[in-house]
């Protein structure tokens, strides 16, 4: 389990589960837990972009190719229907040439605010379906500054371990948010 270091913990308001205080570009270390209500993985980053810029990166399949996935990956979007009940079919291409086909179903989409989706899992990689939510919260209307939180929930302890240890989901999620920031700023 990865936990906050003491310096990060001192910046939180009120302890575990509360909103951390940190500067733009500083990544809040992921929180992973076995709590059935809390997410298995939570990564937060303040981006130097407006919620509208972040949303634009979500709705543009060409932009997604540059930010979806960890460092070194590119993506090919085969389908993107960003709405409640819509579908996102994407192939992630790893730096080693490996292909990772992913299908997501959007469950709760609120423009400029939230995208909740169900990953359909992968028989090839031994992954059960999982749920994730990206929450987009404007920090400062005068300067583009937006807190983005990615929360993921896994189906079982074994699946949690597969995502977090074998596939390094915490590092990948942090890198995804960094890449999203770069693409959102570039427009």
TrEMBL record:
InterPro entries: ASHA1/2-like_C, START-like_dom_sf. Residues 1-20 are annotated as: Disordered. Residues 49-183 form the Activator of Hsp90 ATPase homologue 1/2-like C-terminal domain. It holds the Pfam family AHSA1. Signal peptide: none annotated. Belongs to the AHA1 family. This is Activator of HSP90 ATPase.
């Amino acid at each position: 389990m990865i936990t906050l270091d003491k310096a990060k913990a001192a910046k939180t308001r009120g302890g575990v589960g509360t909103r951390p205080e940190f500067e733009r570009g500083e990544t809040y270390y992921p929180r992973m837990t076995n709590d059935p209500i809390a997410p298995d993985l939570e990564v937060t980053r303040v981006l130097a972009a407006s919620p509208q810029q972040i949303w634009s990166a979500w709705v543009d399949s060409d932009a997604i190719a540059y930010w979806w996935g960890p460092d070194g990956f590119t993506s090919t979007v085969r389908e993107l229907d960003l709405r409640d009940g819509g579908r996102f079919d994407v192939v992630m291409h790893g730096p080693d040439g490996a292909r990772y086909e992913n299908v997501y179903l959007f469950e709760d989409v609120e423009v400029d605010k939230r995208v909740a989706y169900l990953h359909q899992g992968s028989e090839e990689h031994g992954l059960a379906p999982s749920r994730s939510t990206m929450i987009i919260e404007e920090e400062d209307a005068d300067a583009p500054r937006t807190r983005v939180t990615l929360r993921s929930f896994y189906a079982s302890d074994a699946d949690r371990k597969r995502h977090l240890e074998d596939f390094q989901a915490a590092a990948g999620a942090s890198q995804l948010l960094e890449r999203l920031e770069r693409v959102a700023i570039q427009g």
